[in-house]
């Protein structure tokens, strides 16, 4: 299956330079693309490679188009953001290959009598849907998922196999929850009485907006009393932990293994590199970017890129420098002593000593 | 649903100052509490806010009571530890709302003929319980859980949906295992023969005490030959990894994303901040507190708070200081050279040179 | 159940010194072994303890044999690598105890009509196997697992309960996938258009070689366009995250909580300590060893041991040294100033100043 270039441009926009009847069947990187593929040039530094590409057509920016046109013989689709165009074209081709899950409820699923499952939704094998849960139009609940009492799954949202979505939590439209993710588990809240922990019931919910993606084996805790909030367009990768009562601002993205402790408030349009950690009760402004492996131990009120990880070294060097790091206070003392001595040496002799 | 204040105090203790017939239906923080809520003052610094709270009743300590009584018009429950009282009151209200799962086995569950499930236990949809497993009185095994051969689940212990509890492992009374947790998976044990790994069978168990909570997607490895031990009252948050043959002492708590390598022995009443990591074969004393994001690379034999993470900075500053960290040995050499030079400058000239 | 020593040596090799008819039923460490156990001496430093062991037989290296023979009265099995011999013997004893899962498909499983399940394979309760999937001879698919469309599970590979193996991915022979692992979830790929993320479909696969072990709750992303590759003999512990389009070289081992960002290429025979992190698009040579808790932020082209984590300290000391780390640039300036001053003091006075 494939499409003609003219049809693609009609659907996705861009200016076609070439034969609209040319058939293309997929999308591939510059070096790998074959005669029935589209490719894309999203980085001007690579434009010298475009000429050598075997792609039938190339998505290029207006800035690169003249350069590419000189060496590249295939068709061109000129678009202001070739990488976004690539994403949309890839979605188009993927949809052609996709087997749409059939509407209806698999006979092996356990669906409570008073749950409301839209007739256009798909509910797979061994799914459990409890009392009062609502599954929206076109939603897909794959095999082995659990949907708790009163939970709400929005239109066109897709839960992959073995995801768990607990009672009373909600997710909006066009969301994706990947396998093994757990939404709405209890937050980690205890009162301590003489060393023994007394559980504080976690009665809040997780409220998730539209167009949110949640990665495999990621956990989001329900709020203690109030709710945990994930705003529209947030993208969470795999193995992430979001504590109770956090708020993650719209269009913020977090890479794998990030941890956010409870009651952190994170702004919009932020990015978090893999394994970044955020302590509890902090506030992070909009457009803050945290590098991978960095520990955020204080609130950040200004946009910008922040980093904090120990630089890697050969182990022998690390052992040496780590020992010095441990003794930095002593090093500082030595410098202070040197400064004092030198001050004595360079100061003009005092009058009283002259006598 | 709710309760009268008199009934609450009868059940939970504390001294009531106010109308015992006042109806309350829930519990909320100072600022959010409404006319049918109880609130609590667990931090004396906030006592000025108590007067403005709309709560029907307030839990206060004896120390704060006189101060609060001056401005706050509602009823007061005086208790030595208001936060613990709050936890117990919250448990009371949560129990009123809770839908108790019906005793019995869901028809879709697969329960081995010789497994012993107490008639008062609940076994949900699509659960698998293998040969010889024992499910105690009042235990709740939610949908999609797996209980392996010969495993033992104690009285009133609750496994949330899609938890996995492997063969021969045991958990005591009143425990909680959250969704996606995996108890008793194989430890990571191999012998290396010419670069190729030969698996060492993991034949020990995981033995878990009473009142233990285990978070979502947390893993606890079974022992290699002996057992992995989790003592009474331990609280583990989500996404934690506990290696084989570890022992975690009673009433120790670990926040999300902590990792403990194999054969570590951790004392009682310890706390581990999120993403703290503990190397294998270490011993950690009782009452040790490890800060978030810290790597424990040696045994700790004295109680106290320990920390080790790289401080966060704006990326440009981090790049500068990280480069200096890498060259700390050179910096130390410079200081030594300076010390030497200054020693020469300040030493009295030697007699032989006088001639 | 057990075996006679003669039978064991016949099967596993080594030179027996002692009675071949002696019955042994298990294997245990030096200190714990009883009269029907084998033990092993894999570390010469412990050889003085061998004499006190109650084990019926001891696996020793040729180097330690003479020493052990002087004090230890039991039988000896002399082998060049006692730890590997121990692993193989432990496998032998574990197999005696193991209940082999019966071939065939549990009636509660949902298996697509055109999936091919070898008659010798075991498919447990509540398993879902989708269209066109292939389950090899002797494979074991435990309860609650999901196998997506067109996936291939090789001969003798074992998926533990509640593992998820997505469409079109493949694993070879004798593999192990532990509970909660998710293979072939979407990679984290987006194009950004004015702050909003556009999903890039992830259409590659995860291709896994023979003899690969994958830990509980570990995730491996499918490739974006090309495949994610896990070569033969790789061993991954629990809670690991492998990003899309990574390649992990043969016989590389990673401990728990490791994260590898997308498109990293990792060599053969590497080891990664727990919670080590690798940024995307890096290349790591063969035989590189990364210490626990270390962030790999650049490619590593030479074998060796590399480390990068902040050394642990008492919290009060950490606060002091972390403050100095933040100000290392200022400290460097002070040293430069001192060097300058001292240079002035020690330089011979210039002629022009003499006048």
TrEMBL record, chains A, B, C:
Coiled-coil residues: none
GO function term, MF aspect, one: N-acyltransferase activity
Active site positions, chain numbering: 244
The protein's Enzyme Commission number: 2.3.1.191
Family: Belongs to the transferase hexapeptide repeat family. LpxD subfamily.
Protein name in UniProt: UDP-3-O-acylglucosamine N-acyltransferase
The organism of origin for this protein: Massilia psychrophila
Short name of any one Pfam family annotated for the protein: LpxD
């Amino acid at each position: 299956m494939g499409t003609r270039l003219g049809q693609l441009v009609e659907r996705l926009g861009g200016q076609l330079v070439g034969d609209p009847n040319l058939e293309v069947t997929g999308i591939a990187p510059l070096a790998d693309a074959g005669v029935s593929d589209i490719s894309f040039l999203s980085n001007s530094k690579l434009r010298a490679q475009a000429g050598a590409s075997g792609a039938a057509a190339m998505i290029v920016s207006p800035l690169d188009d003249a350069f590419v046109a000189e060496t590249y013989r295939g068709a061109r689709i000129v678009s202001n953001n070739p990488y976004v165009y690539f994403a949309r074209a890839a979605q188009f081709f993927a949809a052609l290959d996709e087997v749409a899950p059939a509407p209806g409820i698999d006979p092996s699923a356990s669906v409570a009598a008073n749950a409301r499952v839209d007739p256009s939704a798909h509910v797979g094998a061994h799914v459990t849907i409890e009392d009062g849960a609502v599954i929206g139009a076109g939603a897909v609940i794959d095999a082995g998922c659990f949907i708790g009492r009163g939970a709400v799954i929005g239109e066109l949202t897709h839960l992959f196999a073995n995801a768990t979505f607990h009672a009373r939590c909600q997710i909006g439209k066009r969301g994706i929850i990947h396998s093994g993710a757990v939404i709405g588990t209890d937050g980690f809240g205890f009162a301590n009485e003489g060393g023994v922990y007394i559980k504080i019931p976690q009665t809040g919910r997780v409220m998730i907006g539209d167009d949110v993606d949640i990665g495999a084996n990621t956990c989001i805790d329900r709020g203690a009393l109030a709710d945990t909030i994930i705003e529209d367009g947030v993208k969470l990768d795999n193995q992430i932990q979001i504590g109770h009562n956090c708020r993650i601002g719209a269009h913020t993205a977090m890479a794998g293994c990030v941890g956010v402790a409870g009651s952190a408030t994170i702004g919009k349009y932020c990015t978090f590199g893999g394994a970044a950690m955020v302590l509890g009760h902090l506030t992070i402004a909009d457009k803050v970017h945290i590098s991978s492996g960095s520990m955020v131990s204080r609130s950040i009120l200004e946009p910008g890129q922040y980093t904090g990880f120990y630089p890697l070294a050969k182990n022998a060097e690390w052992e040496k420098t780590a020992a010095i790091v441990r003794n930095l206070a002593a090093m500082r003392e030595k410098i202070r002593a040197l400064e004092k001595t030198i001050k004595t040496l360079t100061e003009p002799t005092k009058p009283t000593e002259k006598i």
